[in-house]
Specification:
This protein has 169 residues and is mainly alpha-helical. It contains 7 helices and 2 strands. It has a two-stranded antiparallel sheet with strand order 1-2. The longest helix has 26 residues.
C-alpha cells in the first residue's frame, strides 16, 4: 500500500500544480496583452460568496502540502498566504511542489491506516484513516480549488482548455 498512497497523492499534486502554474503564467500574459489590471483577475470570483482566484490557488497549495505531510507523518507547514500577484502565486506553487517532492514513497508506509485528525480540538474536528482522508477528503478538496481557479480564468476570457488544466503527465 506504500506505493499506492504515495502514487495517489504526491505525483497527482505535482502534475496538477504544474498545470495551475502554467495557467497562471498564461493569465499574466493575457492580462498584459489585453491591458487588464492583474489584480482584477486575481480577485475574480464566480459569485460574491466564493473565494477569489488568488485564494483558490492558496487553498489548493495548502491541501497539496497538508495532505502529503499528514500522510507521510510529517509536520504540516504554515504559509502566510499573502500572495497578491501572478508571480507570487506561481512562487507559492513552486515552494509547495518543492515541499511535497521532499517526501519519498517509504514515508507513506503506514499512510493508509494512519489516523488523520483535521481541525483538532474544534467543533469541526474530523477523524479519518489515511486512505479515507486522501480519497474522500483531501483529493476532492484539492481538485475543487484547482478546478475553480481554472474556471475563474476561463470565465474571464483566458483561452485555456483541458490540456492546460491537466498539466504534464
Amino acid at each position: 500500500m506504500t506505493d499506492a498512497m504515495y502514487a495517489s497523492s504526491v505525483p497527482v499534486f505535482r502534475q496538477m500544480l504544474g498545470g495551475l502554474a502554467a495557467i497562471l503564467a498564461k493569465a499574466e500574459a493575457h492580462a498584459a496583452e489585453k491591458q487588464i489590471e492583474p489584480a482584477a483577475l486575481i480577485q475574480a470570483r464566480l459569485f460574491p460568496d466564493m473565494f477569489p482566484l488568488g485564494k483558490q490557488v492558496q487553498i489548493a497549495c495548502d491541501f497539496a502540502r497538508g495532505v502529503s505531510a499528514r500522510l507521510a507523518g510529517a509536520q504540516v507547514p504554515k504559509y502566510d498566504d499573502g500572495e497578491q500577484s501572478f508571480a507570487e502565486l506561481r512562487e507559492l506553487i513552486a515552494r509547495s511542489v518543492a515541499f511535497i517532492d521532499g517526501f519519498s514513497p517509504t514515508q507513506f508506509g503506514d499512510a493508509a491506516q494512519r489516523e488523520i485528525v483535521t481541525r483538532p480540538g474544534t467543533a469541526k474536528e474530523r477523524r479519518f484513516d489515511g486512505q479515507s482522508y486522501l480519497l474522500s477528503y483531501g483529493l476532492p478538496q484539492f481538485f475543487f480549488h484547482v478546478t475553480t481557479a481554472y474556471a475563474l480564468l476561463r470565465h474571464n476570457g483566458l483561452e485555456i482548455g483541458k490540456r492546460d488544466y491537466m498539466g504534464q503527465y
